[in-house]
């Protein structure tokens, strides 16, 4: 008999086989979750007050949300004027960089432009953090938008909160640089860190949305190329199935205002062209996950990528990988980038910090 203190426990069933607005970073109840674990609904007063559930790694957890702070934050963002449509993809990229590069860095941190083996990157570090483990991070943006510069402030918050040296990788974007350019750049940046005499056991890789897909694909590529595997992978709202036929695209179309089937279809066409969408380096859910390091997967319950996250968790668990898969109630796509604006962003980043500390210790 299974006992979970003050929690309603529901057996799982198999899953069907960022913030972004049309892939643009902004500030802004699953029925089926994959797994082999449990879906846990917190019912205790303490759990509701803290906005979190508890459980062992390897379970899928639904966090009770949203907080009043998030709702107030969402209202403020909704009141902002909507900018006019960009004239081109490059104009949209420039807008994103111009706006997000103005966000202040976290106190006690710095961000330095580096050449990671020929790939541009930004290294975010804490003061006196030269002995911190490394967190190699891949930004979201549908493989066609955003940059390390746009994520610079978030990278410094990750460095401060996680006690890590965060390398934001400026991987090549489509359509100028289609698949597999992003994966190749990710591997180059990872090898650059290894060449600095950093053991793989002190490196975690991660990313959000398309960057979550790069993270998962890179793990597969490292094994196939016989590179040392990192200590773990962090996938936030990961886009890992570019076939784009998951049920959550339809089920959550009214609740996800930041990503959509149209966005996914357009972006995957630019990135892949006529390439096989079931290639595991394009859609990692179709890969062989045997022998992979631990994974941390976070996603919002109303996201169109809800099923992508669930399918990745299911596939990896089935191969024996230790997976922590957490579903946050009503959180938008890649809400963590708003850290520390509301408790759910803080909670998720705290979990990332704990994961990094655990797998690199």
TrEMBL record:
Q: Which GO terms describe its molecular function?
A: hydrolase activity
Keywords for this entry?
Hydrolase
Pfam families, per this entry? Answer: Abhydrolase_3
User: Does the keyword Hydrolase belong to this entry?
Assistant: yes
Domain Alpha/beta hydrolase fold-3: from-to ranges: 135-336
**Entry-linked InterPro entries:** AB_hydrolase_3 (IPR013094), AB_hydrolase_fold (IPR029058), GDXG_lipolytic_enzyme (IPR050300)
Please name the PANTHER family in this protein's record: AB HYDROLASE SUPERFAMILY PROTEIN C4A8.06C, ALPHA_BETA HYDROLASE FOLD-3 DOMAIN-CONTAINING PROTEIN-RELATED
| Name recorded for this polypeptide | Unannotated protein
